[in-house]
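Standup notes, structure subgroup. Blocker cleared on the arginine input:
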Amino acid sequence: MPTFQPLEALLTDLLRAAVKTLAPDAPLDTLAVERSKPGRGSDFQCAAAMQLSKVLRKNPRQIAQDIVAAMDLQGLAEVDVAGPGFIGFTVSEAALGRTLVAQLASPTLGAEPGDGSTIVIDFSSPNVAKRMHIGHIRSTIIGDAIRRLGTWLGHRVVADNHIGDWGTQFGQLIYAWNHWRDDAAYAEQPVEELERLYVRFHRDAADDPELHDRSREELAKLQAGDPTNRALWQQFIDASRSEFDSIYARLGVDFDVTYGESHYNDMLQPLITELLASGVAVEDEGAAVVYFKDEEGEDAMTPFLIRKKDGAALYATTDIATVRYRMAEWSPSRIIYVTDMRQQLHFQQLFATVRILGVDDVQLDHFWFGMMSLPEGAMSTRKGNVIRLEELLDESEARARAVLDERLGDDPTWSEADRAELATILGLGAVKYADLSNNPQTNITFSFDKMLAFEGNTAPYLQYTSARTHSLARKAADAGLQADGSTFRADDPAERELALHLFAFGRAVTLAWEQGKPSILATFLFELAQRYHRWYAACPVLKGEDAELKVSRLNLNAAAQRVLSEGLGLLGIRVPERM
Ligand code: ARG
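Run returned:
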C-alpha cells in the first residue's frame, strides 16, 4: 500500500531537485509548489522562477522553461509555463488515483503525525459558585476542539480545567451563606443560590463597607483551616462541579485533571518569598510586584502584582506557581491557555515573568477569543451578560426539533426517539459550529435562524452532507456495490476538484492546531461539502454500465465521508447517518 504524500510536497521535491541541477548554489528552502487559485487552469503552481530571477540574473520565463526542461516528473503531472513565469502542474489521473487510495488507507487520512510531545491545554476553567458565563462557553468549545486536534495529531495532551476555586470570594460567600441563605432554593438550584448570595453580598457591601471586614474574617478562618468554613468551601465546590459536569457531559467534553486554583495554594507564599529574595519581584508599599523594564529603565509593560498589601496572593501568583507545577509534573513542550480577550495582558505578564524565572524550554500560547452575544430577546437572560449555557443548548435543541419536524412531516420511518436524537445532534452541533466556524479572535453574535439553516456555512449543512454520503453508500449496497478503496479514476472536473480538496485535509488539521484556530478546519469542511454537492450533481454514481467507474465513485464518496466525519469529530460535532 502506498503511503499518502501530499502532492504539493512531492512536486516541491522534484522542483528543488531540478533547480539544484541548474543552479547548485541557489537557495532552495523558499521554493515551494502550492495549490493554484481557482480558474488558473492548473492544479498546482509555483513562483520559483520569479524568486530565482534576481539570483540567477535571467528572465523568469526563461528560468521557468529551464526548470521545466530539467524536471523529471515521473508521470506525476503535466507542466506548463504561464504569464511572467509561473510553472503550473496538472496532476495525472494515475497520481490522483494513487493518492486517494493512499489517503483512504492512512489512519490519519493523510495528516502528518505530531512528534508525540506533551502539551498542556488549560481551558474552560469556570469559577466555582458562579454559573458558567459566555466566556467559559467559548473557552470550553474552542479548547475542546484544540484538544481533539492535538490528540489526533499524536500529541500527549493533558487537558487541565483550571477552575477558580480559591480566593476572596469565598470569604464573601461564607458570610452571605451564614446570614442570608435560602435552604429551599439551595436544595433546588445550588449554584443559582450561591450566585444570588454573591450578588447580594456585593450589593449590600456597597452601602456597608464593614461587610468586607466581616468577609475577610471568614476568609482568614478558611485559610487557617477552620473545619466549618473548610466544609462549606468544599460543599460549594462540589455543588458547582456537579453542575459543570452535567454541562460537560452534555457537550461531550472532558478533562484529564481539574486541579483548580486551590491546588497551588500552599505554594504561593514560598513563591512570593523566593521571588522577592531573588529580586524578580520587589516590595512596593507592602505589595509585591514584578516590573518589566526596557533598556532605558522604563516600564515595558504594566507591572505584575503578585501580592496585595494585605499579604494575599492573587490570580497572577497562582498562575506562576501553576506553570512551575506543570513543568515539573509533565515536562510539556507547550502550554496553551484558552480564555477571552480580556486576559491578554495577564498572560503577557505571566509569560514574561516565567521567562525571567528561567523557564524557557516550553512554548507558551494564549489563544484568546472575542466576545459572544445573543440576539436581543431570543433568550431569557438572568441578568447582565450572564447567559446560562443550559438555556442556550435547550433553546437550540428545541429549535432544531421544530426545523426537523417541518422537514420530515409525518414520515413514519422517523420515530419519536430518532427525531429526539437527531434534534440533539443538530442542536448541539449548531451551537458548537456557530462558535468554531468563526475566527476565534472576532466577536460573534448568535442567530438561531442562521446557525440552524440547512444552507450555508452551518453544522446542519455539513451534517446533512455527511448523511448524504451514507445514503449513497446504502443505495449502493442495495445494488450489491460497495467502496473497496482499491481504485480511483478522475474523469470529470468535479471529481478532480473534490479529490484535490480532500488531499488538503491534513494541512487544514495541522494549521488549525498550530494556530489554535478550529475555524481553519471548519472552512475546509465547508468547502469540502460544497465540492461534494457539485460532484454529486455532476457525477451519477449508480447509473450506467461501467462497474469499475461505480466503485471508483463509491471510493471517492467513502473518502469524503471519512474526512467529513473525522473532521467534524475533531470539532466535537457528531454526524448522523441519516437526516
Ligand atoms: N477562572 C478564570 C476566569 O474565569 C479563567 C482561568 C484561565 N486559566 C488560567 N490558568 N488563568 O476568568
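Discussed briefly. The CA atoms of residues 30 and 203 lie 62 Å apart.
Next: hand off to the docking folks.
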